[in-house]
């Protein structure tokens, strides 16, 4: 009986030790491309209307365990309102500011070298899109694959391929009858630099 108790204590302490969390804070710069939102079904107008492409800047706070991590991120960009079709894109940058808040759960899926890692992340996101004088709130999902590596001391870098999906950022009254509202999606590449606090 004492042997089993000793084994349980050993397993418990081994499992607890890697769970010591590391807090990190970082800045992220992303190039994003948007699609969806509204599609012309008549063939007479611009085929696509929705947010335009944007560069965003974000602040990220994460808590990393050995192979699992949790993150909170807020990012801002000026996507504008874009009309695309027939090889031409027209974007009005006076509207369409985008603020996104996301909560992500990440898992290490592979290690590269002595300290690099590939992680997969998934979680919910809240998109706030300033359209005219209104702010539209949309709930969606974010997924990403990231490669992280140490830079120097407490600093680490990350490059992330990311995608997001939410319902159309347009309301029914925003678009003419010949336009069909569709899900708004985006994809992009993010570069980040993080500092380990603990």
Low-confidence stretches: 1-19
Helix-strand string: HEEEEEEEEEEE
Termini gap: 39 Å
> Taking strands numbered 1, 2, ... along the chain, how are they ordered across the largest sheet?
1-3-4-7-8-9-10-11
Helix content: under 10%
The largest sheet is: 8 strands, antiparallel, barrel
Describe the structure.
- The protein is mostly beta strands and 198 residues long.
- The protein is built from one helix and eleven strands, in the order αβββββββββββ.
- It has an eight-stranded antiparallel beta barrel with strand order 1-3-4-7-8-9-10-11.
What's the structural blueprint in terms of helices and strands?
Elements lengths: L1 H15 L5 E19 L7 E4 L2 E11 L3 E11 L2 E5 L2 E5 L4 E16 L3 E16 L2 E19 L2 E12 L12 E18 L2
Antiparallel strand pairs: 1-2, 1-3, 1-11, 2-5, 3-4, 4-7, 5-6, 7-8, 8-9, 9-10, 10-11
Main traits of this protein?
198 residues, mainly beta, 1 helix, 69% strand
Short recap of the structure:
This protein has one helix at residues 2-16; strands spanning 22-40, 48-51, 54-64, 68-78, 81-85, 88-92, 97-112, 116-131, 134-152, 155-166, 179-196. With 198 residues, it is mostly beta strands.
